[in-house]
Amino acid sequence: MDDIGGDVTTAHRPVDTLEAPHEPVVPAPSSWRLWVLLLGGPSLWFAHFMIVYLAAEAVCTPKLIGDDQPWSDATLDRFVVASTVVAVALCLAVAALSWRRLRREPGQWLWWVSITLGIGSALSVIAVGSSTLVVGGC
């Protein structure tokens, strides 16, 4: 016994402020889904841009130097429109899947970033593909 009257052998457990019982526990997002959805929209935009650019170069360059074109201008236009529709659908699917994950795991701000990147990439794909509708083929 100490001079106050308590038992010295009974030690009080220190309070751990990092894991307070009143704070909600938010599970960490699964890393591969997060990275796939986070980078999915910009990757789809980049792939669409390169495919459309290379297809236009492959079709328009022979026309400029006087060789035979592998495709007609109308075929190139249809290809660009079709690839644009597919890429926009995939970008919006990335945004929708990210929204679903955000509803399951609230408080994860990276899902908001993924949604924003998916929608922004869809708008960028539309901007790249709309040049075919405005300007036309070669």
Describe the 3D structure.
- With 138 residues, this protein is mostly helical.
- The protein contains 3 helices and no strands.
- The relative contact order is 0.17.
- Helical element count? 3
Rounded to the nearest angstrom, the radius of gyration is 28 Å
Shape type: elongated
Low-pLDDT windows of residues: none
Measured distance between first and last alpha carbons:
96 Å
The main β sheet shows up as: none
| Strand content bin | under 5%
- Helix and strand content put the structural class at mainly alpha
- Percent helix range: 55-70%
Order of helices and strands: HHH
Average pLDDT figure: 81
Number of strands: 0
Topology:
Blueprint: H1 31-65, H2 73-104, H3 109-135
In short:
This protein has 138 residues and is an all-alpha fold. It contains three helices and no strands.
